[in-house]
Write a structure and sequence with these properties.
The complex is a heterotrimer of chains A (289), B (783) and C (174). Chain A has twelve helices and 14 strands. Chain A has 289 residues and is of the alpha+beta class. Chain A has three domains: 47 residues, Uridine Diphospho-n-acetylenolpyruvylglucosamine Reductase, domain 2, CATH 3.30.43; 110 residues, Uridine Diphospho-n-acetylenolpyruvylglucosamine Reductase, domain 3; 110 residues, Enolase-like, domain 1. In chain A, the strands form four sheets. A five-stranded antiparallel sheet of chain A has the order 4-5-10-6-7. A four-stranded antiparallel sheet of chain A has the order 11-12-13-14, with helices on both faces. A seven-stranded mixed sheet of chain B has the order 3-5-1-12-9-10-11. In chain B, α18 packs across α19. Chain B starts with 24 loop residues before the first helix and ends with a helix. With 174 residues, chain C is of the alpha+beta class. Chain C contains five helices and six strands, in the order βββαβββαααα. In chain C, 32% of the residues lie in helices and 17% in strands. Chain C is globular, with a radius of gyration of 17 Å. The chains are: A alpha+beta (289), B alpha+beta (783), C alpha+beta (174). Chains A and B meet through α12 of A and α4 and α20 of B.
């Protein structure tokens, strides 16, 4: 199970990365953590002519505050998301989600930018950026731009990135006091991609849900936001919430696919229950905060 | 009850029965094992295969010319160069007349399963070989594949092997006169069909071989990841018409097998033949994981319909089973092969109605899938079906599953006991293990707790499974040999015919030798897996090594000890009855200072032979071949408690208990490891692992992303209890290597059956994925 | 940027790295995995390839101190890195690390093929979490697959290694 041949570049700057991408377009692939790309190369499902290794671009590995946002560099490792106290304080959902990503050996290499660009609908980080309405900063030959998470994921393994662009950072809004976050997953084995997962981010003010965001993994070709439910819950009194119904509503209308691990009915049924659990825990946390 | 913390052997007195730390570990934990992929030879080449993407069809076009021209490629061979009508494909264990799939090395004119090798590329590196594989043009006109074993056996038109005229791979009809009347006359009869899915061995080390043909010496050198060096040599000698002694087969460290590597298969044959064609350059093939999952050999896919007749108390009066195995296109060995064993063992540890009360019809079907290979207790469906049926009957009669077993199970007091299939049990203890397992798991207390939890709507259950495990000792499996050579220095080299691949034989046989001969453990070295150095034997498999290899070790040690004491007595001017040997020193009992070390005795035996006593031959080399009884048996009972999550369908294992009887244990830690390893494979099979084909015959679970091997987080702690009923063989050991995998599935399935019983759910299929379990619950409750 | 030379059929890259404390230089095609680089070019065959797609963990090494799957790295990516393989843990069988000692004491291996990967992962695990609970142990080793042991001996080995390390930290022999 050996990769097909390719040319290899390991640039030191973002501009150099962009040059190579601009020159080769579709024939080039970015190597970040490698945890998703390398198996595809080994199985020869991916056969790029050029590999652009971004691990030596130090500018992509920084984490900084910028006003009300936390700006996390694209090559930030999952392990950093898991353990960095600054990230845990500013964007708790990232720190909450990270331990669910595979195993620690994978987290030592896998990156935020790589996970987003890979756009696996079963993955956690794409769902996180959707739930938090993060912005994905991207560099290309025409300069940098920011893509709202809602516009970033097009379908399975497909984003709105152009072939000559790369993710450079993600801007996460920092939620204020009274916030709560939760992630609930159902995976076959410890560390597996979840068959279905639910993420909840809420803010409680004066006993009411002032803000609520619900995300789902494994329920479609992209990470899903349960916007209709969010609308129904926003402003409601916490004491009046029917979270079981919210879970059911959250999966209504979704058409998850079947695979060897589970069918669509299973995903919807369990997804609903996980949304309920996630909301329950997030609201509990928010009410204590 | 856990074995004591393992001893470093220096501290122990008698080693047999102690959890001695393993010899093997020093090299394996420091990364200095020598597995087949670690073999690196000058001018070595690497092979890769072109494989079929169709399950069934005609090859209309095959062009390897571009691959042959690719830089770094040395040769590309197809059936034209590799196959020959003179090739013999039969294995010694089964004999030439056992009935096999039509033998061929590479696909020739047509393909019969996805993954079937069509061409072999030999190149300077595996990377280059895989590049060249992509340059090979293969066109196949697909035909509808035979995918369903039930329809396959009836279908005489759509054939996996047209030359056979049938898809029936094996048929052992059951004809037990009078049984039908007996069943009809019984107060109750029940029938149920149990299904088992396809799952596979997944050794961590895939298959692999290095083969080299010396043109000048006309000598074939093979290193292979396998279970028997001698059988490999014998096989290739026959297959290729080369004299046996022109072939040398070595197995270094082998990274697990579980039966899959018991016989070399077509890829290895192709590598050997390619190496011969190329000449003077070793050719290495290391199977990759996708190849191993798709084409390495499959197992377990079968169905069993059981009818049992019982009285009002649940006492088994008689029964009939029909078993159908899906053996794929090219099964090894022979066809099916498990049916004959399942048949013999189906009655298990129960009395039934005596001789003539049980009939078993075993059938096997060819399909256009990867062929069936042996997997740890290949016949285990007999236990999986029987033990589930016990619980089904218990449920129908309203009798507790523990109680129904009590009323039927054989106890040690009834030995010797002849089973309805004429197996002679002499030293088994099923009832004793049933009681110990029930006591260890706290069966009655669990039932009370279960009532309480059920009232809360929780789904908890307990499952039992009791079984008898055979060690086969007929044909090639009847003997094992050991040669002991004490070197002039006094060190002890022991050459055995075993084929260790994780069973700790380097340690356990050394324990036996050290104790029986009377030498320090550190002075004993075990050499196996090498046709040039070791006695002929079937290798390791079939749970036989503890009993049969130790039988040989005991016999050889005993002979050697006698000779050494004779020489020692002579040198000490004492009579033979008065001398003994401990820790490599022969001494006169009760006379301090009157001693001679083994090294001195050896020096005399080899170098100063005039000093030998009259009538004693020079040298210290003894060979003994031990003939085992045709069958020996160990037994165990497994008990497990589970909780089923109503929301996700996930099954959580709460406690897992085993009461086992393998007679005397050479090394309790090794025994435990074998049992727990087998149980882990059973947990994997019942809940996680599923080798899935689509309806067009394409395997869909071809990487570890889809074929789910359980991790440490999915396997429970296993608590072990031991009942000790020594066998009637030297040492009193009994083999048990396969037992965990044979007995556990039924226990797990019964536990889930019990957990879901209040919902009226019928559990007769596997695997029990969360999706399937949830579906069962939803279907039953309408929620 | 490492030099690229064309030798044989495809271009190769020179890579300088530190292996088990020693500076080494290899020349590999860019597509060659780090596992294959370690096994063939560095001739350290203790690291095993059992799946080549990043699931089983048999290929685990330490890269700049972190446990990683070497089959998911290219050899060229190790330029300038410090890697530790299983051969780098103990100089010989008489100087086993606590983790290695524990594996032997607790029968944490049978065929041994997955063992180097486990030893490397457990070494890293205990460095970051020296006193894991049983649940943390099972979760922590769930990134490595074993087919022989059923994990029970391995879990015991991790517990035992933790004990040995703690005792050595206190200056006691165990």
């Amino acid at each position: 199970m050996k990769p097909a041949p390719f040319d290899y570049h390991a640039p030191a700057t973002v501009d150099d990365c962009v040059s190579v991408l601009a020159e080769h377009g579709d024939e080039a692939k970015i190597l970040a953590g490698g945890q998703s790309l390398m198996p595809m190369l080994a199985l020869r499902l991916a056969r790029p002519e050029v590999l652009v290794d971004v691990n030596r671009v130090s500018a992509l590995a920084t984490v900084r505050r910028d006003d009300g946002s936390l700006v996390v560099g694209a090559t930030t490792r999952h392990a950093t998301l898991e353990k960095d106290p600054e990230i845990a304080a500013a964007v708790p959902l990232l720190a909450r989600v990270a331990p669910h990503i595979g195993h620690f050996q994978i987290r030592n290499r896998g990156t935020l930018g790589g996970s987003l660009a890979h756009a696996d609908p079963a993955a956690e980080l794409p769902a996180v950026v959707r739930v938090l309405d993060a912005e994905i900063e991207v560099a290309g030959p025409n300069g940098t731009r920011r893509i709202p998470a809602a516009d970033f994921f097009e379908t399975v393994f497909t984003t709105s990135l152009e072939p000559d662009e790369l993710v450079t950072a993600v801007h996460f809004p920092v939620w204020g006091a009274g916030s709560g976050f939760a992630v609930e997953e159902m995976a076959r084995r410890h560390g597996d991609f979840a068959i279905v997962g639910a993420l909840a981010a809420v803010q409680v003010r004066d006993g009411r849900l002032s803000k609520v965001a619900i995300g789902l993994t494994g329920m479609g070709s992209v990470p899903e936001r349960a916007e209709a439910v969010e609308g129904a819950l926003t402003g409601a009194a916490v004491a009046d919430l029917d979270l079981t119904d919210a879970g059911v509503q959250a999966v209504t209308g979704l058409e998850p696919s079947a695979d060897v691990h589970a069918g669509p009915e299973y995903r919807k049924r369990v997804g609903a229950a996980l949304v309920t659990r996630a909301l329950t825990h997030a609201i509990e946390e928010a009410s204590r905060a | 009850m856990m074995p004591e913390a393992p001893l470093s052997h220096a501290a122990a007195q008698r080693l047999i029965g102690q959890s001695v730390q393993r010899r093997e570990d020093a090299r394996l934990i420091t990364g200095r094992g020598r597995y087949v992929d670690d073999v690196v030879l000058p001018v070595m080449l690497h092979a890769a295969f072109v494989r079929s993407h169709s399950a069934r069809g005609t090859i209309t076009h095959l062009d390897v010319s571009a691959a042959r021209r690719h830089p770094g490629v040395v040769a590309v061979f197809t059936a034209v160069e590799i196959n020959s009508p003179s090739h013999q494909f039969w294995v010694t264990m089964m004999g030439p007349d056992a009935g096999y799939a039509p033998g061929r090395v590479l696909a020739d004119g047509d393909v019969r399963y996805v993954g079937e090798p069509i061409a072999i590329v030999v190149a300077e590196s595996r990377y280059v070989a895989e590049d060249a594989v992509e340059l090979i043009d293969v066109d196949v006109d697909p035909l509808p594949p035979v995918m369903d074993m039930f329809t396959a056996i009836e279908d005489s038109e759509t054939l996996v092997h047209p030359e056979l005229g049938t898809n029936v791979a094996g048929d052992m009809p059951a004809d037990v006169p009078g049984l039908d009347d007996r069943l009809a006359a019984a107060p109750h009869t029940f029938t149920e069909t149990f299904h088992q899915h396809r799952y596979v061995q997944v050794p961590m080390e895939t298959r692999g071989i290095v083969a080299s043909w010396d043109r000048m010496l006309e000598h074939l050198e093979i290193t292979v990841s396998g279970q028997s060096a001698h059988e490999t040599r014998l096989f290739y000698s026959r297959m290729l018409g080369i004299p046996e002694d022109a072939i040398h087969v070595v197995m270094g460290d082998v990274g697990g097998s579980f039966g899959q590597k018991m016989f070399t298969q077509r890829e290895e044959h192709a590598v050997v033949i390619a190496a011969r064609a190329i000449g003077d350059r070793p050719v290495k093939w290391i199977e990759d994981r996708a190849e191993n999952l798709i084409s390495g050999g499959h197992a377990r896919q079968e169905a069993m319909r059981v009818t049992v007749a019982v009285d009002d108390e649940g006492v088994l009066l008689g029964g009939r089973a029909w078993q159908l195995e899906d053996v794929g296109a090219y099964p090894y060995p022979g066809n099916g092969a498990a049916g004959a064993s399942s048949l013999a063992l189906f009655p298990g540890p129960y009395r039934w109605g005596g001789p003539g009360s049980v009939a078993y019809h075993a059938q096997a079907a060819f399909t256009n899938t990867c062929g069936r290979t042996a997997y740890r207790g290949p016949w285990m469906m007999e236990t999986t079906g029987r033990e589930q049926m016990m619980d089904v009957v218990a449920q129908k009669l309203g009798i507790d599953p523990l109680e129904i077993r009590r009323r039927n199970i054989v106890s040690r007091d009834e030995m010797p006991f002849t089973s309805p299939m004429q197996l002679q049990f002499e030293t088994i203890s099923p009832a004793e293990t049933l009681e110990q397992a029930a006591q260890m798991i706290g069966y009655n207390a669990f039932r009370e707790e279960q009532e309480r939890l059920r009232a809360e709507g929780r789904l908890v259950g307990i499952g039992l499974s009791s079984y008898v495990e055979p060690q086969f000792g007929f044909g090639i499996l009847a003997t094992e040999a050991a040669t002991i050579r004490i070197e002039p220095s006094g060190k002890v080299n022991v050459y055995t015919s075993t084929g260790n691949h994780g069973q700790s034989l380097e340690t356990t046989i050394a324990q036996v030798i050290a104790d029986e001969l009377g030498v320090p453990f550190d002075d004993v070295r075990i050499i196996q897996n090498d046709t040039a150095r070791t006695p002929y034997g079937a290798g390791t498999g079939g749970s036989r090594s503890a009993a049969i290899a130790s039988g040989a070790a005991h016999a050889a040690a005993s002979s050697m000890r006698e000779k050494v004491l004779q020489i020692g007595a002579h040198l000490l001017e004492a009579s033979v009855e008065d001398v003994e040997m401990h820790h490599g020193v022969v001494s006169v009992r009760g006379v301090p200072g009157a001693e001679v070390p083994l090294g001195n005795i050896a020096a005399v035996a080899y170098l100063n032979t005039d000093a030998l006593p009259p009538g004693v031959s020079p040298g210290l080399e003894v060979s003994e071949r031990y003939k085992a009884p045709s069958f020996m048996f160990s037994n165990a009972t497994h008990a497990v408690t589970v909780e089923v999550d109503r929301v996700t369908g996930r099954v959580q294992i709460l406690r897992y208990v085993v009461s086992e009887d393998c007679g005397n244990m050479i090394n309790p830690m090794v025994v435990e490891g074998q049992i727990v390893g087998g149980i882990a494979q059973a947990v994997g099979g019942v809940f996680y692992e599923h080798m899935v084909y689509d309806e067009d015959g394409n395997p869909t679970t071809t990487t570890f992303l889809d074929y789910l091997v359980p991790t440490a987080a999915e396997i429970p702690d296993v608590e072990l209890g031991h009942v000790v009923t020594p066998s009637n063989t030297p040492g009193g050991y009994k083999g048990l290597g396969e037992g965990g995998a044979i007995c556990a599935p039924a226990a797990l399935l019964n536990a889930v059956r019990d957990a879901l019983a209040p919902l009226g759910v019928s559990v007769t299929e596997q695997p029990l994925s969360p999706d399937r379990v949830l579906q069962l619950i939803v279907d039953a409750t309408g929620e | 940027m490492p030099e690229v030379h064309a030798t044989g059929q495809l271009p190769t890259v020179e890579v300088d790295l530190t292996v088990n404390g020693h500076p080494r230089r290899v020349r590999v095609e860019p597509r060659k995995t780090l596992t294959d680089t370690i096994r063939e070019d560095l001739r350290l065959t203790g690291t095993h390839a059992a799946c080549e797609h990043g699931v089983c963990g048999s290929c685990t090494i330490l890269l700049d101190g972190d446990a990683v799957r070497s089959c998911l790295l290219l050899g060229v990516q190790a330029e300038g890195a410090h890697i530790t393989t299983v051969e780098g843990l103990a100089s010989d069988a008489t100087e086993l690390t606590p983790v290695q000692r524990a594996f032997r004491e607790c029968h944490g291996l049978q065929c041994g093929f997955c063992t180097p990967g486990f030893v490397m992962s457990v070494t890293a695990l205990l460095e970051s979490n020296p006193l894991p609970t049983d649940e943390e142990i099972r979760a922590g080793i769930s990134g490595n697959l074993c087919r022989c042991t059923g994990y029970q001996g391995i879990v015991r080995a991790v517990r035992r290694a933790s004990e040995i390390i703690a005792a050595e930290g206190r200056g006691e022999g165990v």
